[in-house]
Amino acid sequence: QVQLVESGGGLVQPGGSLRLSCVVSGSSFSINTMGWYRRAPGKQRELVARITILGNTHYADSVKDRFTISRDNRKKAVYLQMNSLKPADTADYYCNAEVSIRGGNWYDYWGQGTQITVSS
């Protein structure tokens, strides 16, 4: 069984910073691309950032130059450093990982979500 556990959400003032972490646990699995998604109230889930196993990154236009995604393959973890936060960044943030168990097919796994509220 593979599980993704996120941490680091909370309440922050506009212009502030937060760092999200996500650790993948389980046994006999491999991880490919990892990423962060978010769902704001009343909106659909959207990609925030993703990072391949080689470290190639992609960001949503709305977070470029403010957010940085990184990963530690040894720790099976992915991180999202968020700077210059805006009220529009308020959302539930979800960790995502493309996982293969025992060399089988690749499937998307999701964390439980962590809430971020940007407000003064």
Query: What global shape is seen?
Result: elongated
Q: Write down the overall mean pLDDT.
A: 96
The DSSP helix count reads 0
Radius of gyration: 14 Å
Order of helices and strands: EEEEEEEEEEE
Can you offer a commentary on this structure?
The chain has 120 residues and is mostly beta strands. The protein has no helices and eleven strands. It has strands at 3-7, 10-12, 18-25, 29-39, 46-51, 57-59, 67-72, 77-82, 91-101, 106-110, 114-118. The strands form two sheets. Strands 2, 4, 5, 6, 9, 10 and 11 form a seven-stranded mixed β-sheet that branches. The protein has a four-stranded antiparallel β-sheet with strand order 1-3-8-7, with no helix packed on it. The model has no long low-confidence stretch (mean pLDDT 96).
Features:
single chain; 120 residues; mainly beta; 7-stranded mixed β-sheet; 4-stranded antiparallel β-sheet; 11 strands
What's a quick, concise take on this entry?
This protein is an all-beta fold and 120 residues long. The chain is built from no helices and eleven strands.
Blueprint of the fold:
Elements: E1 3-7, E2 10-12, E3 18-25, E4 29-39, E5 46-51, E6 57-59, E7 67-72, E8 77-82, E9 91-101, E10 106-110, E11 114-118
Parallel strand pairs: 2-11
Antiparallel strand pairs: 1-3, 3-8, 4-5, 4-9, 5-6, 7-8, 9-10, 9-11
